[in-house]
Structure formats: C-alpha cells, structure tokens
Amino acid sequence: MHRAWAGDPLLTRGIPPAYLCPEVARLWHCPEGFTFLDPSSLDSHAKSHASDAPPPRLELRGITKRFPGCLANDHVDLVLQPGEIHALLGENGAGKSTLVKMIYGVLHPDSGTLLWQGRETVVPDPAGARRLGIGMVFQHFSLFDTLTVAENIALGLDGPGPMDALSQRIRTVSERYGLALDPERHVFHLSVGERQRVEIVRCLLQDPKLLIMDEPTSVLTPQEASKLFETLRRLAAEGCTILYISHKLEEIRALCGRATVLRGGKVVGACDPRLETARGLAELMIGTELSTPERPPAGESGAARLVVKHLSTTSDNPFATSLKDVGFEVRAGEILGIAGVAGNGQAELMAALSGEALVADPASVVIEGVSSGHLGPRARRELGLAFVPEERLGRGAVPELSLSENALLSGYAREPLVRGGLVHFGRARAYAETIIKGFNVVAHGHKAEARSLSGGNLQKFIIGREILQRPKLLVVGQPTWGVDAGAAAAIHKALIGLARSGAAVLVISQDLDELFVLSDRISVLFHGRLSDSRPTHETSVERIGLLMGGLFATPPDEDGEIVRAL
Amino acid sequence: MSAEFALVGPILAAMFAAATPLLFAALGEAVTEKSGVLNLGVEGMMLMGAVCGFAITVKTGSAPLGLLIAAGAGAAMGALFGVLTLLLLANQVATGLALTLFGVGLSALVGQGFVGIPLEGLPKLHIPVLSDLPVVGQAVFGQDLLVYLGIAAVPLVHLFLYRTRAGLVLRAVGENHHAAHALGYKVIRIRFLAVMFGGAMSGLGGAFLSMDYTPMWAENITAGRGWIALALVVFATWKPVRVMLGAWLFGGVTIAQLHVQGFGIDIPSQILSMLPYLATVLVLVLISRDVARIRLNAPACLGKLFHPDS
C-alpha cells in the first residue's frame, strides 16, 4: 500500500478491492468510502479506453501554472467527453479559475499540453477559444451595464454582422432554449438571472462544443437555477460538453455525471457525484472532516434590538432599487434572515441600517430603543450595532492596510484602542492577534495586508472583528459569499453562537441554503419590498424561492409587477 | 438694414470660429474618456499643437503641413501620456496635470523665436452664391476649412462611437475593462489609440488658435480653453452633439463680451473676459443636474488603472 504514498494521494471510488486501505485513509483523514489509488494504475486504465473510443472533446495533460509566490496549477490532468456535464470542484484557491482561464485562453500554462478533440492545440486568446468552439460564462459577469443586450452579445462574437440580423438571431436562440431576452434593453435594467441569460445566449450563438460555467447559480433563485439546469441538460443532450464549477454540492449531484476535485492546485480525485453525498464531496474538497454547525432552538425571544418601520428610500442612482415601506424587527437571541436575489434593495437596506445612508424619518430605524435614522455609522456603533458589509475588500476592510489597522477601523468605537485622540497601536495589534487566534484566520500575523488574505480568511477576520466587540446587534451581508465550505462552517458557527449568547443577528444573503442553516425566521426582499417573516421550520426552500421571484401574497403595486399568488 | 442687424452676420461668424478650438479638443477628449482614460493634459496638448503648427507654417510656408505637424505634436503628447499611464500605470490625474505643465513650458521654449511674427491665417473658403447670402452668408458659408472640419467631426465621432463596431468596443473598454479583457479585447492598445486621437484633436484645436483665430504665437495662447474643453465633455455627458452646443455657447459669449467691451460699457474688461468661462460652466451645470443621465453615460472605468493580470 505504500506505493500510493509516492505521488499525491489520489482519491477515487469504484477501485478493485485490492487497493482498499482503510488504515491509510484514516491516517490522512480520508473520508469514508474513498480509497487511495496508485496514480499509475489509473493512468493505464484511462489509456486502455482511449484507443477504441472517439477522442475526448478536451484533454489536459500535466498543465502547470505558477504565479509569483504560488503554484496555482500543478500537473493537472483532465478529460472531458462529448456531451457530458463535468463538475470541477475545489475550495477557493484550489486553482479552478486559473485552470478554466487557461482553457479559455485568458491565461497561458507554463507547461503541459492541451488536446482539443484529440489534437494538440494552443489557445492563444479568448477569441481563439471561441473559434475552437469554447464558450465561457463568467462568475462575475463580463457584461457592460450601459450597453444593450444586443451590443453586449455583439462584443462577444467575432463576426456579429448587422445589429438587426443579430437581434433576430438572439430572439431565435433565446426562444429555442427558453431563455427569454429582449435584445434592445440595457443591461442595467436586467435582473441577475436575465444577465446570466445574456452570457449564455452569447455563448450559444457560437455553437459551442464546450461550455464553461463558473459558479453560474450563486446568484439565481432556486427556480431560475432549475430552469438553467434544463437548458444545460438539453445542450448536453445535443452533444455539447459542459464544464461546471460550483460550490453548491447538491447542485452538482443533481446535474453532473462526473466530477474532478482540485485541492491546492492538484487533482486529488475523481468521482461520480451522483453516487456521493454532499458531505462526502465537501470532505474530498477540503481534505478533512467537515463539521456542520448545529443550531440549537432559540429560547424565549428577548427584547427587540432592531425595529425597522415604514422604511422607504429614494435614490439618484439609476442602478439603485428604492426601498418601499420595509418593516421588521430583530429580537435578542435570534437570527433573522433576509433572502432575495441581488439588486432587489439589499445594498440600500444595508446602507440604511449601517448609517452610510441616512433616512428622512429617524423613527424608521430604531436601534436599542433609540430612533437612529438620522445617526451616522459611528453613533449607531456606539448604540451597540456591528456591521459586516457585503464587499469584503473596499468596504469591510481596506485592502492596502494591515490587519491591525483594519481591526482599528471599526473596533475603535467599542474597544479602548484610541486614547486622547491618539491611536494605541499596541492594543490594536493585540486586538488583531486576538481575532486571528480566536477565529483561526490564516495570515502572516497582524502586519499582513488585508488583500493578501484569501476571501474566506478575510471574511473570518472581519466577522471576528465585529463579534469580539460584543455587539448587541449584528447586521451581516452575504457572510459566506465565495467562501469555501470549511470557512463557511466556521462563520456560521460564530454567528449562531453570537445569537445564542443574547445578541440579535440580521443576515442578508442570496444563499438560501445558508439562510436555512442560520435563520430562526426568514423574510424575502423583492423590488424593494419585504415579505412578512416566517419561522424557518414552517417554510421551505421552494416557497422562499417563489417569493424571491416576486410571488408575494400582497396586492399588486402600481407597476403591476407583483402578482397575488400562493 | 439697421446697423445692429448688420452685425449679426459677423458675430455669428466669429462665434463659430471662437468655438472651433474647443470643439476639436473636447471631441478628442470625449473619445479618450469614452475609452476610460481621463487625460487632464488637454491644455498642454493644445499648446504644443499651437506652437508646432505655427512654427512649421512660418518656416515652410505650408499651412497644411503645419496642421499635420500640429496634430502629430498633439498625438505625440498623447502617446507620452499613454506610455506613462497605460504602460507604466502612473496615476492619470497626476500625469495629466504634469502633461499640462510640461506642455506650457515646452511650447514656450519652442516658440521663443516665433513671438511677434505675423502669419496670414488660413484661407477662407468662398462658396459661390451661398457665401453671398445676407446675414448667414458669411457666418455659415464663409469660414475657413478647419471650422467646417470641426463641425463635420461631430457627426463623424457620433457615428463612430454609436454605430460602428470599433466604437462599440471602445465604449465597452471604457465601461468595464476587465470584462473587455476577458472577452479578448486589447484594452491597452485601444486606449492608446484613443489617447492619441484625443491628442491629435487637441493639437488641431490649438493650431487653429495660433494659425487662424489670432494668427500669431504668444505664450499660453490657449488661455485655459483646454480646461473648458474638459469640463465641456463631462457636462455634455460625453455626447458629441452636446459638446458642440456647449462649444458654441462658449464661442457666443466670447464674442458678445468683446462687443460689449467695444461699446465702451463701464465694466472692467477682466470681468468681461471671465464671462465665457463662467457662462459655459454655469449653463452646463444647470443642464446636467440630471445625475441619472451622467451616470448612464459616464464611462464606468474612467480614470481607473488597468493591469491585465489583476
């Protein structure tokens, strides 16, 4: 069995019993059911298949990419067959994005070969990838807000032809795949789901043979996501290969026929996700056992820490969503979750609660019994509010400042870090070190720049910074956006712990799974309006999903957009 | 025909002429900014165009060659800005300010030997019949070539930006450079070309001043028009037609205040000279109070540095 130790341990499933090695598996925290495999035997296995079958759509051999200070991809092998939906799994920083960027020609490998339909190929740039028949839908959409749908699509095509004809083609394709789109609309008018359709239609117009989807559902409602899956299955049935990247393991189990797992830039395993549990997949990704947070039942609900009444906002920004008569309260000891697709007023609600945007009527935001609508962020913090914004870099932390300076930025209001107008750097450093230790932040000490941390670690730091101030009320936006499973579990645990210790916690998130793990009650924000809250155990993902799509049980508003339903 | 009415023709003519340097510079800057680059060096580029065009025309006697060199000098200044901000990633605001200071000094140095030399000015086009029409004849049909070129550039720039693929790509680069890069567009090359175009247009605007409007060279001949051009672009929400209207407004007030001075009204001439600048800024601020419109038209990546790997 020691042979399996020579290379990186390959975890796989369905291997002849001779390779089973439970002892070694336990030693390496190998999740149960997975086994070590000698890399060479897998290799020969693959080769025997290659001789008689048609060549795979895409094959990567020994792809290596080095960035200053890190090896992003280390001899990665990957085989994609025609018509398969193949998942690429891994934590943040495992090298998934780097790998697909090399397939799409945005980056170039330092070494290794890429075989396209059996022929060795160099993808010079994205245009070259598109010529080969490779399409990509980016995680952060590569769309241009102030251009129309048709203009956006034209930019992604090599010979778009006249705009009228293109608009017609867009209509045809979008009808065929059930992706309703109006080519003449400006992108900033579109919902996130519609924006994604623009990206997908852009790819489909080029008759792709390989479609790369980078975290496509992280911003969709469950209904939108299942519609997307229908489209993807249909494409796969027509012979298109789909390379699917996602953190959402349940989705991968429902959609994908094969999965390749990356960890630390290396391929550590391959499996059929339909045969695995989500937990098993997560443990394969992080390489250790996953501890999921338990949410003890809420005790007697305490005093109302935050009361929002008739909160309405207006904005000069044409991209903003105005809040319309939003009302809710969060009590001591509980977590209230606010669901909703991005762009439905979350940013405006966060700003109105944090004090970044003041509201006309002070009584519409009441913190700890004090009308605070007219108070700025510092005054609200002094009342006991702590706040974790959605954007980690730039809002939650200053990227160029060290961790101790970042700790100071929000800590000074409630921690004794400033004395007589002068910063007490010793205490700021100690405070930062406390956060780093208490929340297992992986960083080079308190001097590390905020931007040098991975997303998950920075988020742990920011949430730790707020929690250690012993807030009476914590408002968090997207606590685990783009954070890997291990860090997400730690963050969830910390939030639940804070609530159970008597604080009121408000979580605004697009991730329904997260809200169902965390929240005692859930509301939905849609077009600036907030639904009534429901105890989590009395509702379901489907029901919340419908609310996120706008099916409120409220009378239609003046736009007629909200339908009476349910 | 009363004496006042007889004045309208020449005043209109003078207005179009006074607007021309601004029109060139602002159109060029509009294209530059639409690609996402904020070049505050317009004044410096205009001055370099002015002095080079003047010097070459004096030395060679060829006005077309002078204009060509003026555009080239502006483009070279633009290229310098491009190297510093697009390739070496220097801060665009600071570099633009430096470019203006550099242009002021270098143009004074180059122009040292040319102060006080008279120049004939560009030939006026005379269109038979049309140029002889009363009132508007001289104003609209008796100008020299550059005035027409400036006006013709407005629809051309508009068509380029909003009707051609190259214009679409340029706007896309200014809107979201990371997305444009991910789609495979050469962000830096496109911006470089836009900056050079802006420089060439500023150079022509400056050359019009020194070779035609006041056919002579004097230090700082542009007198802050580069800054007005910059303001014009923003307040015109990057739209060529609005840039033109703003330039005409500036030209109109410039000429009107000259006439007021001529009538001997008892207002200090410095205050009158201030009027065109004041009026332009005031009117443009008033018509651009619509924040939504600015946001919709402003290139989202304006002034942001772009590095392909980040």
UniProtKB/TrEMBL annotation, chain B:
It comes from the Bacteria. It is found in: Cell membrane. The chain crosses the membrane at residues 6-25, 37-58, 64-90, 97-119, 139-161, 192-211, 217-238, 245-265, 271-287. Pfam families: BPD_transp_2. GO terms for cellular component: plasma membrane. InterPro entries: ABC_transp_permease. GO terms for molecular function: transmembrane transporter activity. It is a multi-pass membrane protein. Keywords: Cell membrane, Membrane, Transmembrane, Transmembrane helix. This is ABC transporter permease. The lineage of its organism: Bacteria, Pseudomonadati, Pseudomonadota, Alphaproteobacteria, Rhodospirillales.
